[in-house]
């Protein structure tokens, strides 16, 4: 039985991911921090002693390479924090041909988590998959017949909200499928955090790249608090499938988040789209 705890944190090069990594680092922690920029990760790895790995979630090949690198280094994972994501121009497509919110915020972490399932199941005391969601889930809607928004329905804000709703549905899907392996999952809205979030979308970027971001927002340190609390709580069955609004369990969520037919349909479609079937 290993006395060391292994953590994988995506979106860790800045913002709440970086704050969370610094707070959770310790002498008995084996940590992997993931970001798009090797230069940005250097400061995090220097402060935490973590292994820094780069991956661009707009490319599934990067996600698969990331999983292989984690496999080669660690036999088990106690915590997987799926924190990478953002806002983008919904009219563009990724290299894999998907609407960017759908791929980067949902499909990529879905693929990574599934590829790391063996390591999560190998954790002695159970494992926690923690997904960063958003109150924006309230304005989303999952249409199983048009997951990639080929019909162009809605705005960037709608596409973002839908991807955050998918994060909650993915959390529920894990809770329904992997509990026997002692893999538990929770989702959390950290709050409206004043970070570089929104850099990929003109509308969100106008807000988050100007002094307007200080109106009604909280600091990255404050935003990271619920992530840190839940990460330290670890593989607790009581939080399995729960969506948190910061520290409050059962936060406001889109009614679709509990539609089991949509949760199952999204899981099946996602598995097919990322090549897991």
UniProtKB/TrEMBL annotation:
Gene3D superfamilies: NAD(P)-binding Rossmann-like Domain
Family: Belongs to the short-chain dehydrogenases/reductases (SDR) family.
SUPFAM superfamilies membership: NAD(P)-binding Rossmann-fold domains
One matching Pfam family: adh_short
InterPro entries: NAD(P)-bd_dom_sf, SDR_fam
Protein name (Swiss-Prot/TrEMBL): SDR family NAD(P)-dependent oxidoreductase
Entry keyword set: Oxidoreductase
Keyword field contains Iron-sulfur: no
Species for this entry: Gordonia prachuapensis
Alphabetical list of PANTHER family matching this protein: PHOSPHATIDYLINOSITOL-GLYCAN BIOSYNTHESIS CLASS F PROTEIN, PHOSPHATIDYLINOSITOL-GLYCAN BIOSYNTHESIS CLASS F PROTEIN-RELATED
